[in-house]
Amino acid sequence: MAARYRIGQDPDYVPLGRRLLLMNWTLVLLLAILSCIGFAMLYSAANGSLQPWAERQMMRFAAGMVLMILIALTDVRVWLRMSYAAYVISLILLVGVEIKGDIGMGAQRWINLGFFQLQPSELMKISLVLALARYFHGLTIEETGRIPLLIPPLLMVLAPAALVLRQPDLGTALLLVAGGGVIFWLSGVRMWKFAIILGGALAAIPIGWQFLRDYQKNRVLTFLNPENDPLGAGYHITQSKIALGSGGLFGKGFMLGSQSHLNFLPEKQTDFIFTMLGEEFGLVGGIALLLLYTLVIVYGYVIALRCANQFGRLVAIGVTTTFFLYVFINIAMVMGLIPVVGVPLPLVSYGGTVMMTILVSFGLLMSISIHRDVRISRQGNDDGRH
Amino acid sequence: MFTRRAIMLGAGQGVLLTGLAARMYYLQVMESDRYSTLADENRISHRLLPPPRGIITDRFGAPLAVNRQNYHILIVREQTPDVRKTLTVLSQIIEIEPETIDRVENDVQRRRSFVPVTVRDNLTWDEVARVGVNAPDLPGIIIDAGRSRDYPEGPHLAHTLGYVAAVAEKELTGDPLLELPGFRIGKSGIEKTYDMSLRGRAGTSQVEVNALGRVIRELDREEGQSGETVVLTLDIELQRFANQRLSEYESAAAVVMDVYNGDVLAMSSHPTYDPNSFTNGISHKLWESLINNEYSPLSNKAINGTYSPGSTFKTCVALAALEAGVVTPEQRFFCPGHLDLGNARFHCWKRGGHGWVNMHDSMKHSCDVYYYEVSQKLGIDKIAAMAKRLGLGDPTGVDLPSERSGLIPTREWKETQLGKRWQGGETLICSIGQGYVLTTPLQLATMVARLASGKAVTPHLTRDHVVPEDISARSDSEFPDLGISRQHLNYIRDGMNGVTNEVRGTAYRSRIKIKGLEMAGKTGTSQVRRISMHERQTGVIGNDELPWKYRDHALFIAFAPVENPRYACAVVVEHGGSGSGVAAPIARDLLTRAQELKSSRPGVSAVNIQSASQILRTTTKKQES
What is the value of pTM for the model shown? Predict the structure, then answer.
């Protein structure tokens, strides 16, 4: 791929050695530390065993790391060119799930590829950011103000969001809308237009509600009000708060969390892994993890602000915000601040697809960082420089 | 534009993350104690360890109610690959009904896989051994030893001891001990009276449990305290003898008590039942047969049976007359066989009459007319006052539940209860222990003890120094004096002596002939059914010719020895016929036996009882460990 940009023809070409030098190794280290915390917690969740979670998570991490570095070393313009294609493929896969998907956890989310359970909605999280970034990259600031030109990106957000909502996976749908909204916002779309969209969305809720089937309505209702389901979501959140609160300042010690180890805490290896960390390492451990995440997010912003091209800046913030939303929604959820949504804690929760999604998106972020000085024309071609 | 908005976005995210940190601080520092408690409540479960029930012994320490090892078989689903197969193998080793297998399979499915389900109770030692030997073929089968109440004397003490049974819904007091499966409480008799002492104090075991309730490990254990030993005043030998003697009749009751200290030495009610059959739940069939039995075996007739005392009541009337000063012992009345009052004629039991009788003779011959005459001078209220003073008409306060009070009528009682005025003739009928007067055998025994001692003796089945928490301080012979003239009491006792030890006394044939052990008594035959005028005129219907339930009750009260009386006794044989012919021989045998037992064994002192119970406690502990 990089072969198209030969030395001499492309003044922005960054040689491989320099790419390796420009790699954000500190960020790589941060991600590795977070993942290692995850391994430790998964080891604890299995009562001091690498099986069944920690070992598989390590293998996925290793594979994901290789993939991340490959993506990081690839020229950002390649990703720009591939973004629409990625979006279309993701959309097709989402439709595919809609038609024939494996039912799991009460929702259609996976496509079984034999060797891998592909979750197209995760793929879409990256593709949507890429596609929107490319679209707005192609607009001048004046064009961004024209309403007809905002309709295509709006549809680009709504189409996958609607499909994911049908699975039903309200959490991912909201993540997609929020991630997309951030790109709109950063591209300079006026505040009042957001207000109109928001108002329209609220007005559309009762209409859309009628199209849902009864069981789907029930799922949404349970999501909105966990008390309807005291032995399900309501029980989970109560036990989660007890686990966190009883952890206190310094925690009960590694592998000594009674709530987690006596199974009062559900799903401790996935969505509620932060609770277990909070129980075993206390406030100190929880804040330390939060600081690590904050550092990663700050890195994302620094990369965005230092990037010379609009595409890179938008993708960087989009990726960072998606990452932030994962962290925020998961932790706020286990602390009972927001309703229970199935959002994992990035890099720490057990789960292959999310690990891949996160590492791929950080690969993109690092690619942007490495190629921060590359200037790209609105058409996305290197020869369009003026 | 981009930079500004990006910084705004970043700032917004920073605020949200700070919010998370604040929430974390709130949960983990400010609310930490509350959540720690909740986590411990989740984690720690307090399990009660039921204490062994206290044992009950007789006055010499002979075990009357003990705890027997009860082996049962349990099955744990998660430890056996195939429940049905294991049960089938088990049924080839010990007897198991086919329905049991279905029930267990059902139970096992409905409970959590680690919760043991009872397969069978009450295994014999032989069965335990056979299951133990075959253990390798029986995965998931557990032999568990529990305790169950055992009454070695069986039916001999059913009424006094009572029985234990599972706690009923309405008996739940909030005490968690009562909610333990298999816990038994006293339902009647001594078991009920001293239930709190016998129960003991539960131990606790703190265990760590997981979310499914499975015990992970024991954190702390506090042993409970077994129930107190209750030592009864009963002498089991005398008790057995009394039961045996009464069992010759359809339905009867007898009490032997100590004149000085109120110790009940024997309390027998016949027919009886086996209290062991209640411990593990009585069968419907057996229960039906017990409650439908016309001789009411479940009732303790010594305290629940109320009978017209008949002529035994004359001792009370005579004493009342002496105390009131309406007669002197020598004063005579003429008995022509009847007395006319108004339009009514009141007969003496002896149709031909007794002629001139003084007080001594009136007792000896049980002349009714003498008492008709005396009672007219006394009036019912003075008779009633003396009866109450002698312990009749009120519960004696013996330490058994559901004692009945009997009835001693007064003018006021009749007016308030029946709304009618007292008739003079009714006083006459009451004076010979008929009419409204109703007493229990225990009250009669108490009356005899009071006549013999002059003190306000009350009966009891335990001594205060054995179960101090339950009985207000009660010393051996510190009963208050009744304030009745010694001389008057001597007249009564002399009259009773005449009944048994003088030729032509109504119970002369039933006297105790052993020198020094003689008894003094009073016969009583109480009519159950009024004899019609027609029958009286024809005079041919003998008591024996009537159906059983219309026959007279036979009663006898007595004390022995005549000099320095020590034992008081009351016997009632329901529809047994005459007091002299049926009840007196029983009393004679009981009092003879009581005195013989006393001479053959050392006297019982407080020290003896205490050491006996201590020995017993240590031996039971050894057996348990």
Answer: 0.66
